[in-house]
Design goal:
Blueprint lengths: L2 H11 L12 E4 L9 E6 L2 H5 L6 E6 L16 H9 L3 E4 L2 H16 L6 E3 L2 E9 H12 L12 E11 L11 E6 L4
Parallel strand pairs: 2-3, 3-4, 7-8
Antiparallel strand pairs: 1-4, 5-6, 6-7
Length: 189
């Protein structure tokens, strides 16, 4: 299989043109005409994932290794040290980030982890109509994810509409109609 053919498969699964404008999903490193011997999948291109790659492999990740333009390649610093190792292994790197979130990840977590049977999805969030107390929602989320790291208590204790975002949902606060937002991460500020 060529890298171009692998990219076409990835694009059919989660179209790259549906990624967010700030995202760097798609082909990050590689020659589309290159033959791919093996395919590996990881959350991100970290030292462990790259060290385990055989020569000529393709690594498909969720989080892009490169977000902002690179001004220099100092191989003693991140991300250049990982880019160098990928190039030395003649490895390709593909990121399926926000396009994958929209098409698969949120739905998967809503169904398989949170156990929601009826829900709707809009872009980066899944919504579920639930009539539980705030304490019951915290208990259910804690059980599903092995604990809850941070909680901001709502003004009202009855919960009717819950939103879930597997990625960084902080930007949605105040913009989506829900009583509780469950999100994978928030920026410190």
């Amino acid at each position: 299989m060529t890298l171009k053919e692998l990219l076409a498969v990835c694009d059919r699964i989660s179209p790259f043109d549906e990624r967010e404008s700030w995202d760097n999903g798609g082909l990050i490193i590689g020659d589309p005409s290159a033959q791919i011997g093996r395919i590996a999948v990881a959350l991100e291109a970290d030292r462990r994932a790259i060290d385990s790659l055989p020569l000529g492999a393709a690594l498909i990740v969720h989080h892009p290794l490169i977000f902002a333009p690179i001004k220099s390649l100092d191989f003693s610093k991140y991300p250049a040290l990982l880019i160098r190792d990928l190039v030395l292994k003649d490895a390709a790197l593909i990121a399926m980030h926000t396009n994958f979130d929209k098409h698969h990840l949120n739905r998967f977590v809503a169904q398989k982890v949170l156990g929601w049977r009826e829900f709707t999805c809009e872009q980066f969030a899944c919504f579920c109509e639930i009539k539980f107390s705030f304490e019951k929602i915290v208990e259910l989320v804690g059980a599903a994810f092995g604990g809850v790291k941070s909680i901001v208590e709502p003004e009202r204790r009855k919960i009717y509409r819950v939103a879930f975002c597997s990625g960084s949902g902080g930007g949605m606060i105040g913009e989506i109609a829900c009583d509780i937002l469950i999100t994978g991460d928030l920026k410190y500020h």
